[in-house]
Design a protein that fits this description.
186 residues; alpha+beta; 4 helices
Length: 186
């Protein structure tokens, strides 16, 4: 049931009709039968674009399981709160229509409509899908910053700053390696 709820929520983030899925790094996360079922389910979701009843139950794995799933760089960012070098991830320049997912648990975090070019070298968003990210204070660089992480798996995503565009004035500065992208078909 949890997988179905996730698929419905993910599907809702993309809206209805005529969709196909792709995931970064050619990772295959669903069979063609599952994708066909998702496309059918997407047609019944509401106008907000994601399922508000999406299962946010905590995903818990051992360190070894996370290392195996994520690889070195994604593990460093998501589990050790590291930061990738700026201007190194293709999502910084990505302009495709779709939804950005947590690379740890595939929870939808941002839609492409929320993305903007901040010039910082990291994918940036002016808002996030409500309830899918949690924040905490980070003092690693002496002055306090607001760190955010996935509400479902706890994976570190980045930091939020108050120098973004209207309407929020926020810049959710994300590590590209902490995301996957699910594109809407043309």
């Amino acid at each position: 049931m949890q997988r179905r709820n996730f698929m419905l929520g993910l599907a809702g983030a993309l809206g209805a009709g005529g969709l196909a899925a792709t995931v970064s790094d050619a990772a295959r996360w669903a069979s063609s039968a599952e994708l066909a079922k998702m496309q059918e389910d997407w047609k019944s979701l509401g106008p907000q674009g994601w399922d508000p009843d999406l299962d946010l139950s905590l995903v818990e794995k051992s360190e070894a399981e996370w290392r195996e799933q994520l690889g070195r760089l994604a593990f460093d960012v998501l589990r050790e709160e590291g930061t990738e070098r700026p201007f190194t991830h293709p999502y910084n320049d990505l302009k495709d229509d779709g939804v950005f997912l947590c690379a740890g648990c595939e929870l939808p975090l941002f839609t492409s409509a929320m993305k903007f070019d901040s010039g910082t070298g990291w994918p940036s968003f002016y808002t996030a899908i409500p309830g899918h990210l949690e924040t905490k204070k980070d003092y690693k660089l002496i002055w306090p910053r607001t760190e955010y992480h996935c509400a479902r798996c706890g994976g570190h995503q980045g930091h939020v700053f108050d120098d973004g565009p209207p309407p929020t004035g926020q810049r959710w500065c994300n590590n590209g390696v902490a995301l996957k992208f699910l594109a809407r078909a043309a």
